[in-house]
Every structure is written in structure tokens, then in C-alpha cells.
Amino acid sequence: MVWFLVSQIFSTLIALIQIGRMSESDKDLEIMVLRYQLGIAERKLKKPVRANRAERLTLAVLAGRLKQQTGRPANQFRQLIRLVQPETVFRWHRDLVRRKWTQENTRKRGRPRIDDGMEHLIIRLAKENLRWGYYRIEGELTKLGFDVSLTTVRNVLGRNGIVPAPVRFGSIGWKTMFTHYKQQLLACDFFVVESLFLRTYYCLFFIEIGTRRVHLAGVTANPNGQWVAQQARQYIWAIEEREEIFRCLIHDNDKKLTDAFDGVFQSKQIQVIHTPIEAPNANSFAERWVRSVRQECLDHVLILSETHLRRVLQTYIDYYNTRRPHQSLEQQAPIPYPDPTKSGTVKCRQLLGGIINDYYRVSGSTSLSPQLS
Asked: What pLDDT does 173 receive?
């Protein structure tokens, strides 16, 4: 279409140059001949002539130029333009003028879309707080210093398929309900360790489910009822000194955990819950810690005696409670360690002869990059 229009303009310019070289009498004679031929063509055609876009453009420009220069009345234009009505030509010309002064509006309408970070924050607030509606989320964002309207919150949640709060809430689920009570739960269990001389030792431990903090109750080769009851009393005294309150103790049906053992906790209003038979998953936190202590410590040490085993376990538990990052605690330890410094030399503390490496920073160093030593 563009090349056809260019060719039409070029041929028109050539025709104008040729006409400019003609005399006035030659021009009048050629006009009479052309009019006569056009009249014959009109009588032979059975349907009206439909000009293409380039032809209409050329005819409209020429007609407009002719009217401007000559000022001819409309009846003379009807005699001059025979293919179409003069009003049609003028309408084509008005369309050209309108296109000239009409500019495409490229400016985006409506409110600008919020950035991805703000959208992710709105979605996070909605998913982490199932009972929050649009107004509550808007208020929380205002508290955080963000200027976000209620309509924006509604649009973001609707765009991501998050239904309103009354529908989204439903049931809180077992996981959420358990999270509420886990700070009041204890678990305990035995695991056995074989020494270098094939002596069997029984290790009793407690784990606080909310914080994952582990307490080694004792190590013995003969775990009788009197011994386990005494370990229970010592642990009760320890948590009373920390002024912590627990409501439930979970353990399996091991015969070594006698009624006297349960009675110590029941006397402190701590309910004892026995897991089903052959269901280790019911005491999963304790079972998972046994796996950790074996994989990270005991599988790499040959135990020589009960004293040696107690020292190894206590060293590992101290590291586990204070320095080992936990995924379930957002990479913190059960006893949270302070925020590390951003600069300083990185040091390594070897535990149990290098079986466990604990890294830490030494503040006050002037080095720009961490150095291991």
C-alpha cells in the first residue's frame, strides 16, 4: 500500500511537470478530450466506480488545491469531477485533515500498578493471617508506612485467586492448632549406644518441642525404675528453676518408663501421653533428634566407657542447644544466639576432636573480607 501510494504521487508529479510545459490552448483541448472519453466510459459501466485509498487520497488533495486556488462554485466542481460526487471528495479531504491533527494517546490510564515487592507483601499478609480482611490488611500496611488503598488490596488478592477472609478462613487446621500448643509439650525417649567393648548403655533424654531444646537426663547400663524416677525429678527441678510451664509429656510404651516415672510429672499437673504401639512417628521430634545425634556425633566416635559417653553427649547437646542452626527455627539455635557482627575474622572452634566445627566471628578486625583461621 505504501509503495503504491508513493508511485501514485510520483506519477502525479511527472504529469504536473508535463502539463506545466503545455500551452493554455493545448490544455483546454486535452481537457475537452478527457471529459468526452470519461462520459463515454460512464455510459458503458453498469456499476459505480470504487476508487482505492491511494486514488481517493490523490483526488482529494488535487481537488482541495484546485478549489483553494480557483474558488470555483460547487456546480462547476460537479462538471469537473465525474467519477464521484464532489461532496464525497470533500469528505475524503476532511478525513485527511482530521487524521493530521489526531494523535494517538499513548498515556496509560488508571492507577499505576504497584511493584512486585508490595504485591508479594499483600499476598503474604493474606496467607499468614487467614482471618484478615481487606480493611485489616490495609491497616497493617499503613502501620508499616505503606500508602496502599483498599481497592489495591482487593485487586491484588483477586488477581492472585485469594478469596475474601470469611471464605478463606475456614478451619485453622491441625498444623496451626498444634503450633499453638507446642510450647507446652515435652517428649522423652531412650536410645542405646554400644561401647568399644560391646557394653550397652541406655541414654534418657528430654526434648522441648516448642524450642527443640534437648536435656540429657542420664546415662546408665542398668535403667531400673528407681533410676528413671530420679532422672524425672531432677529434670522437673531444672524446668522449675527456669520458671517454664509444660502441660503434656509424650513417650512410648517402654517398660523402663515406669508408673513412678509418670507419677513425678503427674504430680506437677503434667499429663503423660503414651504413643500407640509400634508407632514411632507419634513421637517424631524425639526420634528425629536420635537420628541427628547418631549421624552427626556417635557414628564417628568409639565410646570407651560410661563417663566418656556422657561427656561426648553433653558436648554435642551444648552445641546443639546453643550453636547449631535449625531449619525449623529459621536457622536459629534452640537457645538463640545474638546477631553476628558483619565484619571480623571468621574463627573455627573444633569440638570432639574436629568431628564438629563451630564457626564464629572475632570483632575488631580491620580486614575487609572474612578470613578463616
From this structure: 57
